[in-house]
């Protein structure tokens, strides 16, 4: 070390000036519950199972989403539509159960791309919230399906496209 | 005996102010740390997070009071008590202001006790402070605590030497040990820092080491010793150790302001006393109160400086610490004494 370096003081003052500059800088903190980071339109968040214009479920339980899923997060049981249920399900086949494990899901959006019926979508304004129990992360139809009173809910729920 | 009542009031006030400043130093430390790191810091408890120290205290009191099974129980309790006691004692001799004058009363000094060995008193009490750390570290029956305590002891003793030597130059100049006398001699803008810049730097570095602050906080070095001497401490006993550190910072800042930065003096005080009021008593009192405010401004700046340095500099290695203390600071302090002596002799010869 040279004499100037051995005295430590020049380096100390240099360091102090750097931290003092940061003292007056704009803070990077986002006050989370009150203030939220803007989410992009392309954000892939929580899934939703859409209904069509007449409030019928679009999903036909073809299983293509489950096949496309790289994390194997999607399971479903297919069932046949009975007489008198035409106002509930659009196709002749429908998903009796449809479950997505949010702990497995990597939110890649491949299910959305695989779906031939435009039934499953990833919303761009909702994230899977934290929960206390593991089984609470397995989302069934009760939590995935678009609510009935949402109407033709394109305005209520923002989709990616 | 009104004068005794007033004296008691002043002592209680100084004690209260010391504790209050130490309390809010914990808040300021977190706030300063956050600001230096582009964060906001505590802002949830009360407006701007001002109730944070209260919340911390409540948390500390309600945590489990843990005493290790094979430790020496009495010494384990005595450690933090001693640290706190010595920290609180040392602010007694600091002159927080000049005098207040009222009709029919003797002059009131804004100082808890005036002793003519004030500087030695502070040195003695601060040196005792290391016993709190040592006893606590030894009584914990834990090798990390013991290592922290041994480090604290050798570090404090090493740096006390250089600190004392840097003070000797001041004593040679002023010819007194009384902090009040030293303050009064720096009247106006005639501060000691203009004559003793080298001494001040040595004193500053030693003050950092004495208060166990970064870059010399090796006694509580987390990466090597977990918590150092307070590894085994929890609840308010840990709180007392941390609190004592902040009181020590406050006292160190006050001593630095008094010795080198004129204490309660500020430039233009004579002019102000002559012009502010036609009543000489009132003018004197106003200047005294302004001086106290100025002194606290200086103290707050130094407290801020302690924090500023803490969040800027990394910790020294232990051999670097010892080399700095013994091979650089002590020779520099002796050089400073020689230079000061030479300066005083030269001044006498030239009749300054």
From TrEMBL, chain B:
Keywords: Cell membrane, Membrane, NAD, Quinone, Translocase, Transmembrane, Transmembrane helix, Ubiquinone. Its main location: membrane. The chain crosses the membrane at residues 6-27, 74-97, 117-140, 161-179, 191-209, 238-261, 281-307, 328-347. One of its GO terms (biological process) is aerobic respiration. One of its GO terms (cellular component) is plasma membrane. It is a multi-pass membrane protein. Its EC number is 7.1.1.-. One of its GO terms (molecular function) is oxidoreductase activity, acting on NAD(P)H, quinone or similar compound as acceptor. It holds the Pfam family NADHdh. It comes from the Bacteria. It is an enzyme of class 7 (translocase). It catalyses: a quinone + NADH + 5 H(+)(in) = a quinol + NAD(+) + 4 H(+)(out). It is found in: Cell membrane; Membrane. InterPro entries: NADH_UbQ_OxRdtase_su1/FPO, NADH_UbQ_OxRdtase_su1_CS. Belongs to the complex I subunit 1 family. NDH-1 shuttles electrons from NADH, via FMN and iron-sulfur (Fe-S) centers, to quinones in the respiratory chain. The immediate electron acceptor for the enzyme in this species is believed to be ubiquinone. Couples the redox reaction to proton translocation (for every two electrons transferred, four hydrogen ions are translocated across the cytoplasmic membrane), and thus conserves the redox energy in a proton gradient. This subunit may bind ubiquinone. NDH-1 is composed of 14 different subunits. Subunits NuoA, H, J, K, L, M, N constitute the membrane sector of the complex. This is NADH-quinone oxidoreductase subunit H. The gene is nuoH.
């Amino acid at each position: 070390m040279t004499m100037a370096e051995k005295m430590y003081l020049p380096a100390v003052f240099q360091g102090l000036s750097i931290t003092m500059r940061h003292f007056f800088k704009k803070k990077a903190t986002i006050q989370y519950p009150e203030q939220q980071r803007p989410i992009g339109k392309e954000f892939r968040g929580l899934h939703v199972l859409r209904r069509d214009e007449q409030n019928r479920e679009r999903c036909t339980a073809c299983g293509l989403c489950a096949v496309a899923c790289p994390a194997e997060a999607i399971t479903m049981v297919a069932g046949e539509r009975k007489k008198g249920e035409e106002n509930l399900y659009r196709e002749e086949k429908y998903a009796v159960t449809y479950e997505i494990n949010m702990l497995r899901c990597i939110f890649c959006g491949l299910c959305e791309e695989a779906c031939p019926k435009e039934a499953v979508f990833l919303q761009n304004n909702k994230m899977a919230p934290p929960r206390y129990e593991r089984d609470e992360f397995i989302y069934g139809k009760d939590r995935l399906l678009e609510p009935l009173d949402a109407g033709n809910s394109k305005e209520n729920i923002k989709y990616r496209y | 005996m009104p004068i005794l009542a007033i004296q008691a009031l002043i002592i209680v006030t100084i004690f209260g102010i010391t504790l209050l400043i130490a309390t809010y130093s914990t808040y300021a430390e977190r706030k300063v740390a956050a600001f230096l790191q582009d964060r906001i810091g505590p802002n949830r408890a009360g407006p701007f997070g001002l109730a944070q120290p209260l919340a911390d205290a409540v948390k500390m009191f309600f945590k489990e009071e843990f005493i290790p099974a094979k430790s020496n129980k009495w010494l384990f309790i005595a450690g933090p008590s001693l640290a706190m006691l010595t920290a609180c004692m040392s602010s007694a001799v600091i002159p927080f202001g000049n005098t207040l004058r009222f009709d029919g009363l003797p002059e009131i000094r804004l100082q808890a006790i005036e002793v003519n060995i004030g500087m030695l008193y502070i040195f003695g009490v601060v040196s005792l402070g290391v016993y709190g750390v040592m006893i606590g570290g030894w009584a914990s029956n834990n090798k990390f605590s013991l290592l922290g305590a041994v480090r604290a002891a050798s570090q404090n003793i090493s740096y006390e030497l250089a600190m004392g030597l840097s003070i000797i130059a001041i004593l040679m100049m002023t010819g007194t040990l009384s902090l009040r006398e030293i303050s009064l001699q720096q009247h106006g803008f005639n501060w000691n820092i203009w004559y003793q810049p080298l001494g001040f730097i040595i004193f500053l570095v030693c003050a950092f080491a004495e208060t166990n602050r970064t870059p010399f906080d090796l006694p509580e070095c987390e990466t090597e010793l977990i918590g150092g001497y307070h590894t085994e401490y929890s609840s308010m006993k840990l709180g007392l150790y941390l609190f004592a550190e902040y009181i020590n910072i406050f006292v160190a800042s006050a001593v630095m302001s008094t010795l080198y930065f004129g204490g309660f003096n500020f430039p233009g005080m004579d002019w102000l006393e002559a012009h502010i009021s036609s009543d000489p008593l009132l003018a004197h009192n106003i200047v005294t109160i302004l001086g106290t405010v100025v002194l606290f401004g200086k103290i707050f700046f130094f407290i801020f400086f302690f924090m500023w340095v803490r969040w800027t500099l990394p910790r020294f290695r232990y051999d670097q610490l010892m080399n700095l203390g013994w091979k650089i600071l002590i020779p520099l302090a002796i050089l400073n004494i020689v230079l000061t002596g030479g300066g005083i002799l030269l001044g006498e010869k030239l009749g300054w």
